[in-house]
Each structure stands twice: as structure tokens, then as C-alpha cells.
Amino acid sequence: MTNWGPNNKSIMSQSEWPLWEVFIRSKQGLDHKHVGSLHAADATMAVQNARDVYTRRLEGVSIWVVESTHIHASNPDEAAEFFDPAADKVYRHPTFYTVPDSIKHM
Amino acid sequence: METLEKDLSRDDQFQARIDADVRIEPKDWMPDAYRKTLIRQISQHAHSEIVGMLPEGNWITRAPSLKRKAILLAKVQDEAGHGLYLYSAAETLGASRDQMLADLHSGKAKYSSIFNYPTLSWADMGCVGWLVDGAAILNQVPLCRTSYGPYARAMVRVCKEESFHQRQGFEIMQTLCAGAPVQKEMAQEALNRWWWPTLMMFGPKDSESPNTEQSMKWRIKRFTNDELRQKFVDMMVPQAEFLGLTVPDEKAQWNEARQAYDFGEVDWNEFWSVVKGNGLCNHDRLQARVQAHEEGAWVLEAALAHAAKRAAREAVAA
Ligand SMILES: [Fe+2]
Ligand SMILES: [Fe+2]
Ligand SMILES: [Fe+2]
Question: Membrane spanning segments where (chain B) (predicted)?
Fold first, then answer.
């Protein structure tokens, strides 16, 4: 019997590299967009790994990485109430206003 | 009692969102069973990508030309990428990477049985790309619309890369089939070995697949095993004919009435035997994985120690 079963200590005691979220600018002039995550020991390695994992076909010209623990998010369970204030403000949209047909360029 | 009622209505709300094709995102409430089933499905898929590197990795140093070597290397690297996309999708559900790998290495987690077959000749690289990646594409394309957001997005990324895999495999087959008689024989011999195992990739018959119904309801599966298997045969028999090869199944005949190919019965005893660990390569594949993990463990530890040391130095300097 070889020593690679479930009780192997070296497998179980491994400490994981931190998780990083990856954002990629696909071309100059566009925003960085979240593409996924990966593990890396530090930021430099995270950027290099992100290049290898997420841009093997020239999908990016710039990469941001952020340690996942540093991301704070709105609570999805409270999304309805949280975004509610914008729901009844239709006058924020140009379509709320009627422009006479004779008026051009507006 | 109160929580039970609340949970019931939550379950209904959840199903209503899925029925309306609203994607579920990591922090959204979801039933425990949905989370568990997805973790199992996504991690199994990730394991398949990673273990799937081994049979092809076998031929990188023996590829017949520099061009083929570069292509095969790129394909195997893509499979590593697919594994990583999928592991991170599973992590958004709360699974830990270490635990997933530990489960793979202990044999608790499964991966696709197709990778427990050996790659004996160069034509196998053709068959793996053409048939195995072809079957994977059929499985994966519908998953681009699966209900769990991170999984669906990972699958979109994967599918974009898979079609190159299939085409390079088909091109290998085409080249062999246009070559000397021994080359064509090699292609036919590989097809003979890979045909049935690829049909098994779609899983047991619908009648033997009790979880299909729930998975379809959750939209983490969008076609049944038998539907996908039929589609595969319908696609592949004409492609084999184009190559001048014959699929090793006398029953594979066009059925005008059904507008589909009839085909023979998969050897389900072989299927279950390989799933249970008795395939030709189960032992080798797992051992190769565990060995890579153990022999690389010091790199993981050293990189962490290095990062900690550098962070401490920077803190002092600041
Ligand atoms: Fe893949
Ligand atoms: Fe795959
Ligand atoms: Fe592939």
C-alpha cells in the first residue's frame, strides 16, 4: 500500500494561499471587469497567475487584483429595500419628458 | 415551526427565480441541497479538467513535430485553466480548495472516467480532442445557461476555448487518415478504443439516473444523459465517415423515421467498473496527482513564507 490515502498528513495540513479577485481591462478605453478569482501568495504572484489563467488569448491589456477579504458588498437579502430609493424616480430618465415633434437635436 | 414555514416559502421563491431564468449569485440565499449538489458537480468537473491533463501530457514530449507539440502544450495548459475557473466557482459556494483537492486525492471525489483509459498512440491525441473534447462541449454548452452565475460564467470561458481543442484533434485525425495506410490504421484503431468510452461520458441511462429530475428543475443540468448521447452520435457518425473511418458499432445506422442514428448498447458493466476504480489507469492517475501535490507542497509553503517575510520587511521600512 502506498502512502497517498486520505490520512496523508501533508495533504491535510496544507495552508492555502490567500484568494484574490481578478479584474481585467480588455482593451484601452474600457473599464476593468471582474473575471474570477485565484490563489496566490502575494500580489505580484496574483498578477502573474492572473495573466496565465485569464489572458492566454490576449483578453487583457491591464490587470487588477484585490485580496478577496478586502471586498465589501451590499447584502443581497436587503437588495429590494437598498435599491428602492431609485425605483420611483422616473424623472431621472430622459424618456419621462415629452419633447414637441418640431424640436430637433434634444 | 416558524422557521420551517419561512424556509418553505424561501424554497418556493428560490424555485420561482430559477423558473424565471434569474441567475443565483454567491451570497443569495439557496437551499442547502442546491449548494451541496453544485459543489459536488462543479468540483467533479474541475477534477476532470485537472486529471484530464495527464493522458495528453503523456504525449507532449513525443509529439511528431514542434507545431503539434506547441498545440498540445497549449491545450493541456487550457485544461489547467478550466480546472482553475471551476475550482474558483466552487469556492464561491463555500468549498475550500484544499478540501476539494484532498477529496480528489483520497478517492472520495470522482472525476470523469474517460481519463482512466490509456493514451497508447499519437492517434489517441486526435481521438481525445475530436471525441472527448467533442463530448465535453456537448455537456458544457448548455451549462453556459445554468442557474448558478459563477458556474455559468466559468462555462462561457471554458466553451470559448474548447472548440480549438476539438478542431486540433480532428485535424490530427484528418492528417493521419490522409497519410500512409499504417497511419490510417492507427487512426481507426484509436477510434475503436475511444468510441464506447466517450459514449459513457454522458453518464448512465436516464432510467438509472435518479438525480436528473431535480438537477433539471434547478437548471444545473439542461439535457438528460440519453439526449446528449444521441446528439453526440448524430454529430460524430458523419464526421467519422468523412474521415473514412468506421465507428465500432454495427448498429450505428441512420434511422429515417427517427431522423437520428440508432446505435448499440453501451457496456454498462465496464462503465460501473471504471467508476468504481477498476479502469486501466485509475491508480496511475490518482497517484500522479498525489505525487505532484506532495512534491510541490514545499513550493506552496516557501512562497507563503517568502510573502510573509517581505510583508514584515515592508512594514518595518514604512
Ligand atoms: Fe476543458
Ligand atoms: Fe471540460
Ligand atoms: Fe478541452
Answer: none
